[in-house]
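We modelled the chain as a single entity of 390 amino acids. Its sequence is:
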Amino acid sequence: MAGKKYAKRHTENGRVIQNTALKFRLYPTIEQAKLFDKTFDCCRYVWNQMLSDEREFYFAADEHFIPTPAHYKKDAPFLREVDSQALVTVHQNLRRAFLNFFDPSCPYGYPAFKTKARAKNTYTTFNNSRGTRIVLTDKGIKLPKLGVVKARLHRKPLHWWKLKSATVTKTLSGKYFCSLLYEYSVKEQTNESPKEDKIIGLNYSASHFYVDSNGNMPEPPNWLKKSEKRLIQMQKKLSRMERGSKNYEAQLQKIRLLNEHIKNQRLDFAHKESRRIADHCEAVCVRDTDLAETAKKLKTIKVYDSGFGRFRLCLQYKLERQGKPYIVVDKFYPSAKTCHICGYTREDLLAGERTWKCQNCGAVHQRELNAAKNIKLQGLKQLQKEQSKR
């Protein structure tokens, strides 16, 4: 399974720079797999050592200080066997974790120690100024300390993309993946207004995944529901086995593979649907729906199973890559309660009412379709304000 992560944008020397990642499946040799696992363990070891020493230093001197990974190589010579940039990244991540903890606007707690059972098996290495350390070859990906690791190269980056870093991850099912982060310049949005018939508004729908302003309602994927019966049977079988036995580990691996398959189905649908919309529309307006809060109100797992949050991220970077507007409407905007024809707002509209009649103009509205049309209208207003400021 290969895909692209959400892309971030920033401005540099007057150019709009975007980062995107290409994810490839790795097929390491036995020796390479052992070195991968050793690197994961070393990264966890360095994190815990730095965090422990930082706490001791703070209690002793009332100041915050994080030692560098080189401080531990004398007492732990096995750290020299892995990529040094991976350990430097751990130091940067811990420093960023403390900055987030002390930032009142960030909802993060105090950095915690990582156990082998709970820590993610992942590390990141960078291309530094001394030369290229990560190379994409015809046979695979060349990584520091590992050489060329065989990979399934489903696509290649464009020649003007600049390779920044590589993140190696091992899934719970034992598969290895490498995400290559690239940087490149993108099209700047023009002041030309998109055609109104090429603009759509998207409203999240628990029953139809989404409803757009043109009345399109795709069938909900419900990947988890389709595999739920099989997953329950496998989990029941696992509960009768002795924990730690060979049969237990084999059955647990089957469950992990099934969960991974469901996740890949969800991601594949998000990419294909967002690609279809990005190619056929000149602008998309989406309401900033709090999906976690929606799941609590509806008391259903369908909200998480839909993968609508991932779909929005995929749609956003695909539109931005083409220089098309992606407009986010505030989540508190009363899109469902407002008549898209006359603008009347019905404050007493109940959550369970699927259709309602406007008391001002007499129009009868289907709740979700009316909300999508209002999202489009509100998004157009926001787009016009942004263009007038340029």
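As a brief sanity check on the tokenised model: Residues 1-7 have pLDDT under 50 and may be disordered. The chain is about 40% helix and 20% strand.
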